Amino acid sequence: MGVINGRGLWTLYVKEVRRFMNVFSQTLLAPMVTTLLFLAVFALALGGGGRQVGGVDYILFLGPGLIMMSMVQNAFANTSSSILIAKVQGNIVDLLMPPLSPAELVIGVAGGGVTRGVMVGFVVALGMSVFMPLSVHNAGFIIWHAVNASLMLALLGMIGGIWAEKFDHIAAVTNFIITPFSFLSGTFYSIERLPENWRFIADFNPFFYMIDGFRYGFIGHADSSLTVGFFLVLIVNIILGFTAHRMIATGYRLKA
Amino acid sequence: MSLGAARETGKPRAARRYGAVNWRGLWVLYSRKAVLRFLRYGLESIAGPVASSCIFVLVFVLALDGGRAMSPDLTLAQFVVPGIVMFTLAQVAFDSAAVMIIHDKQDGVIQDVLMAPLTPLEIVVGYSLGAATNGLLTGGILLLIFAIFIDLPFVNPLMAIAFALGGTVLFAMVGMIVGIWSERWDHFSAAETFLVMPLGLLSGTFFSLERVPAGFEWLLLGNPMFHAINGLRAALTGHSDASLWLGAGMIAGLSLLLAAITWRLFALGYRIKS
Q1: Cβ separation of B62 and A188 shorter than 8 Å?
Q2: Are B90 and B96 in contact (CB under 8 A)?
Q3: Which residue range forms the structural domain that includes residue B136?
Q4: Is residue B31 part of a domain?
């Protein structure tokens, strides 16, 4: 082996991808159906009458937000369930025993989560494009934020999976942190709608920047500073990556 | 005769006799198996759905321009809250019934229920009333929370209870059938994604009948969830989009039909007894 155990890393990555592809109806199709239902509901309830948000029709504003929401939820679900199931079943040793460094473990597992997130995003976008026009304004921003948002939630999922000891714990994190953040961070409404003294929720919220930056890639309108968003997601990912790395290196709640 | 007495005298105990209904058995199945199991995971099972429903309402109120109302006589929150309460209540009842049965099947403890001196009808009643209770508990808590923040007139409390009961029993029945039919968790989540979510979301929770494009009204009018929500909304706020008697009849009829099917499935042992 050289500096990097390339084959081991590849095997781990493929295992992570196969894990969700095995049940693709649950991991790819179900998010698509749910997201399209959301689109229908919100378009029926709130769209119509030429209502405009951020300079475009409401449905065009909503679409990218919903794609991002499904991506982050699935990236998180993938890594958190992978680690937690391995811990509960005891086969986590099969991850820790092979000659893989902590960094390689983080990259392999998070890579699987990113792949799931991006694939879900793609499938959802494909489904949406049947019902509404999805035009691309800046592909670079779309790809940057899709990958970084998926990575951020994949890393959070790893950290959550390592921390959790029971499925209740991860369900609590999903219910009380991930879902509220992905719902309340400007998926459905422009941040101008928030009362003045609640704007701080958006200012320090990476979810808001990635939804906003991702949406900019489609409609060419952003509520926030694109530069701040661009670097913020990168910095947050580096911090989360190091955290996950430390947790695995020290064996926190992994090695007895 | 108590157990202690039997031991002292050394005589075998007489076989327990039941009337037409094994009330004690039914009560144990209902309380221990269905309701207490649900309450043991209080945070996950009640707080989770309650939190996500509150987020839904918040998102809706924020996403909509302040002044715009759903219908002439109701504010947005007044319109959405009854729908969210009914949707949550039905979903919890469905989840609870299906998860109970799948767990019992996978762990093999369904044998304990089948072996007990309970008729198929008693089993159906015990499980489904348990799941319905869990739905009503969650919905009730949710309604209490919303009632603090939102002005709900409670026009007809009796009708509210009737429709809540109808919706939760109906979806408990759906959950039981899905639970019996499911052999793996995939089956359950497929049913949830492709049946319960569409019924719940395309139901008039979030939009009134008038907003549906012409030609698609049947989609709403044929959805029992729409009628359950409409009934609860009428009872809480006095606003109704459709005939309440038609809705009540549809919910009651479907519930009875599904209960009969569930009863037959248990009696035959479909996917339960090998």
Answers
A1: yes
A2: no
A3: 22-268
A4: yes
Q: Would residue B69 count as lying in a domain? A: yes
Contact A133/B at CB under 8 A: no
What integer best gives the mean pLDDT of chain B?
88
With respect to residue B4, please indicate whether it lies within any of the assigned structural domains: no
Confidence (pLDDT) at A79: 97
Cβ(B134)–Cβ(B96) below 8 Å: yes
Is residue B2 one of the residues assigned to a domain? Answer: no
In chain B, residues with a C-beta closer than 8 Å to the C-beta of A44 are 206-207, 211-212
pLDDT over 50 at B1, yes or no: no
Check: CB of residue B29 under 8 Å from CB of residue B127: yes
Assembly ipTM? 0.83
Domain coordinates of chain A in residue numbers? 7-42+52-187+200-250
Tell me which chain A residues have a C-beta less than 8 angstroms from the C-beta of B193: 26, 29-30, 33-34
Q: Is A50 left (phi over 0), alpha (psi -120 to 50) or beta?
A: left
CB contact under 8 A, B63 and A23: no
Which residue of B55, B92, B99, B219 is the best one to mutate when testing the A interface, meaning the one whose CB has the most A CBs within 10 A? B55
**Are A26 and B186 an interchain contact pair (Cβ–Cβ within 8 Å)?**
yes
CA distance A77 to A23: 14
